[in-house]
Specification:
- The protein has 125 residues and is of the alpha/beta class.
- It has one domain: 3-Layer(aba) Sandwich (Rossmann fold).
- It has 4 helices and 6 strands; from the N terminus they run E-H-E-H-E-H-E-E-H-E.
- It has a 6-stranded parallel beta sheet with strand order 2-1-3-4-5-6, sandwiched between helices.
- Strand 3, helix 3 and strand 4 form a beta-alpha-beta unit.
- Helix 2 packs parallel to helix 3.
- The chain is globular and about 35 Å long.
- The C terminus is likely disordered.
Length: 125
């Protein structure tokens, strides 16, 4: 049996974070949950990931967009899903191949963004 994909999930709202991690586990993903982009960026130095789901508005010095760009630089082609309830970035603000979803999002859209060959796109909820 293949090893489950390791997904870095970054969300500062703990209940949303835990809910998404649980839902991703039910879909066969192994998640690494974090509440800040700064902490996630440090984790990138120690852990190889297979995908990223990040909120844009996060505490600390890095935003979710900063983190997404850094992940794309370190691992080109990495599936990246950026979410937000308050920001709607333009396609050119996202790293290549990233998907944006407005909150509230559907789990199916998160999974599709992590598994389907994606091009940079912005999806309205």
């Amino acid at each position: 049996m293949p090893k489950p994909a390791k997904i870095l999930v970054v969300e500062d709202q703990v209940l949303l974070l835990l809910d998404l991690v649980d839902q991703l586990a039910e879909c066969g993903f192994d998640s690494l949950p974090l509440t800040t982009a700064d902490g996630a960026a440090e984790s990138l130095l120690r852990t190889r990931i297979d995908g990223l789901v990040t909120d844009i508005d996060l505490p600390g010095t890095l935003s979710g967009l900063d983190l997404a760009r850094r992940c794309a630089e370190i691992q080109p082609g990495l599936p990246i899903v950026v979410v937000s309830g308050g920001h709607h970035p333009r396609a050119e603000e996202l790293p290549p191949g990233a998907v944006f979803l407005s909150k509230p999002y559907r789990l199916e859209d998160i999974v599709a963004g992590l598994t389907a060959p994606a091009r940079t796109r912005v999806c309205a909820a």
